[in-house]
Fold this protein.
Amino acid sequence: MPLVSPKEMFAKAYAGGYAVGAFNVNNMEIIQGIMEAGRAENAPLILQVSAGARKYAGQNYIIKLMQAALEDCDLPVVLHLDHGPNFEMCKAVIDGGFTSVMYDGSHLPYEENVAETKKVVEYAHAKGVWVEAELGRLAGVEEHVHSEESIYTDPDQAADFVAKTGCDSLAIAIGTSHGAYKFKGEPKLDFERLAKVSQLLPGLPIVLHGASSVPQEFVEMCNKYGGHVPGARGVPEDLLRKAASMAVCKINIDTDIRLAMTATIRKHLVENPDDFDPRQYLAPARTAVKEMVQRKIKNVLGCSGKA
Ligand code: G3H
Ligand code: 13P
Ligand code: ZN
């Protein structure tokens, strides 16, 4: 089955009170692990590529790997650009066959974010491609944006932004953040703000970035086998499940896949010091990706059986 647009996927998720996982991909094993999980759960999937991933693997390699992944696959799968930093990169992936792009102007002054997003929307819509935009700012680290503090999305500004830009979905800031260190105190999300945004923008799919849960067993595994990720904490799974039951239709997960792979590889190499064939540690790492994605589909997204 060819790549699909998120349009129908999100309409079903919105109506059904669940979300679709958007998992970051960088190489073959990650793509294979995610696809195996989707197949095992009969779940819709979004595979997303950041600017850093595109630079690391090469756009063409990712597209060819995705073509291979889609052979004999009847799941609905979206290929999405994550945190597109400029019009040129959005255009390049649209021309290459991606079915969805995020233009991230969240760090820009409001009017500039509106103008740049609108430019991407015009190009993308002419080609039938979906556009996610972002308003508000998440704390944490991304390829091109570093923010010490979050600035929560203003619901009235969100309504104005969507009307002016024509974007198809909107990433909002309600307390999540990128990376493995999300909360110093009690983890919480601003559900009132989410409800207000969706009340002003009925039917609009909302996106949550920075939505890894940082499962403690993988943090402990990393640390036990020579890693150093002290005090890593994520968004509790039950808070994300609640968001998925509201207007949140897309939940972005990267850090948890990184942790699962790295913890598994560390453990394997410590327990098997004679191994040096990459297949010996990449095969269990790929299984760890599959298991992590299945866990998300079941515990967080609620999209098992929704393909
Ligand atoms: O939100 C950012 C994603 O986790 C991608 O990270 O820019 O290091 O590829 P990256
Ligand atoms: P995490 O760092 O919480 O996995 O967030 C990933 C993300 O938002 C990708 O855009
Ligand atoms: Zn993100």
User: Anything to note?
Assistant: The mean pLDDT is 96. The chain has one domain: 6-298.
